[in-house]
Amino acid sequence: MAWKGVHLSRPARLNTADGQIVVAQDDGEVRLPLEDIAYLVLDAPHATLTSTLLSACMEAGIVIVSVDARHTPNGIMLPFHSHHRQAGVAAAQLAVSEPFRKRCWQRIVVAKIENQAAHLVACGRPASAALVAMARRVGSGDPDNIEARAARDYWRALFSDFVRDDPGDLRNKLLNYGYAVVRAGIARALVAYGLLPSVGLNHASVTNAFNLADDLIEPFRPFVDRLSRLRGEGRSKTDDLTIEDRRAMAGILMQDCTIATETVSLLVATEKATESLVRSIEGGTPAVLALPRLTAVPALTP
Length: 302
Prior knowledge:
Shape: globular
Strand content: 15-25%
Number of helices: 10
Helix content: 40-55%
Radius of gyration: 19 Å
Strand order of the largest sheet: 1-5-7-8
Number of strands: 10
CATH topology of the largest domain: Four Helix Bundle (Hemerythrin (Met), subunit A)
CATH architecture of the largest domain: Up-down Bundle
CATH class of the largest domain: Mainly Alpha
Structural class: alpha/beta
Mean pLDDT: 93
Low-confidence stretches: 296-302
Distance between the termini: 33 Å
Largest sheet: 4 strands, mixed
């Protein structure tokens, strides 16, 4: 079972041999078993990969994340047809009813707001009680858009002088890097379980190949927020991401969380959440959907 991620931040030549990724750099060579790796972040200039390695990564279910010239993740490469019941799971996914999608989205929004509240408690910020109260008012499909209202209060309490869509703010750079890595991890789990990442529960953009990943990521976001806050504390918001920042955010999926009654990594949680979504779809009951929890804030069951 894959349990680790690889963040490549220096020039290297990558190949495969004997079931391993071979990373050759000027100061030596490192070999990593393919079966241990879930994702590979290529955050380095002049990294070269062989087509043999790319094929081996896809066979092993490894997702590859690329970055742009500013070291911001800008693309992912996913395996496909990796589930033995691909067509059956996809058919069931396409057949779900609108009420089912709305109930699943309700559970996702509640879990996200609870995790935001837990994060505020953990860092001693106000407004956590208000967010928990909001979570209790989320209806099927969130018709009152409580998610957005909670987000406004959350960001206002978490950071001062902060605009979420300011690309020059260090906090946004950290957040966006971490979100991209988690999104890739969720997309990896979706295809591994035979789901179509483009067919969402709430997100339905015709230009988005990852609508379902963008649904499931919501309860994971506060974990990224927490790590971003810790990385950015005491620094100027005009700072650039350092190699250490990028390495830390690339490792977000190694952070612990609680899902159901287990404490697992976020990487494992992406798989457990996806597996529970398949069971929900096939059983026709959103109540089976399991989502990560940041702390032991009392669960709200819609």
